[in-house]
């Protein structure tokens, strides 16, 4: 009975933890910790197992976020959330296709752990302020204040992007073609004048150590890593393996289209774009091999 109850809610718990932490690996560790604690209680004495498990998982995730943020201060270069495949047939975390836009996860990194938990529970899962107060062990007025502060912060920093998935996919496909074909002019036409590129290599891949800004700088950097020689060096630097089978595909990542570069049949780089009015405002490039384990390559990549 105890195991059955936990399995029934495991997907929800993983979703909550992932949204709070921005890391699927950390989320799975938190859910495992929750299972160990759950296995020690008498489930028959719990009035609402779902509420109990969400409360426990949320607080474990908050504690873990406080610890990992201290380690992230020593991270080499910018730290970006861990991308997750969200196509219906490959998603490893149930329900992740909704509410986990990569750009939103980046903004959530700027919230305090408590603000982030309140925002996630309120905006993603629809919990009432009273319910969140019970989960966090705080007064309802304090929770309302946290929610207002978090919401204002997110609205101020959340990038404006096209909600039309077809338009976003069209721009993503044009971006991929321009990069693979070495079309500098075509790439420049897709980028806004003040476009930014944020790379996450974690010291294990050749990603920029600082945020790059400006159409010319970003375009020329992308041309350098996407040229034939650049791709080989770029993939080799992260131990890609078989460089004779390099590919690139458009895949569903964090609920939106993204470019997944593959080598030897496995994902090695993910590029997620923030698109507004048909133009690319931000390029997120994730190349840390430790963040590729939740990305599923279809095996139908076109040559890059």
Automatic annotation (TrEMBL):
Oligomeric and partner information: Interacts transiently with the RNA polymerase catalytic core formed by RpoA, RpoB, RpoC and RpoZ (2 alpha, 1 beta, 1 beta' and 1 omega subunit) to form the RNA polymerase holoenzyme that can initiate transcription.
Listed Gene3D superfamilies: 1.10.1740.10, 3.10.450.50, Winged helix-like DNA-binding domain superfamily/Winged helix DNA-binding domain
Q: Can the keyword Secreted be found in this entry's annotation?
A: no
Please state which protein family the record places this protein in. Answer: Belongs to the sigma-70 factor family. ECF subfamily.
Domain RNA polymerase sigma-70 region span(s) in chain numbering: 5-69
Matches recorded under CDD domains: Sigma70_r4 (cd06171)
Its keywords, alphabetically, are: Sigma factor, Transcription, Transcription regulation
Q: What is this protein called?
A: RNA polymerase sigma-70 factor
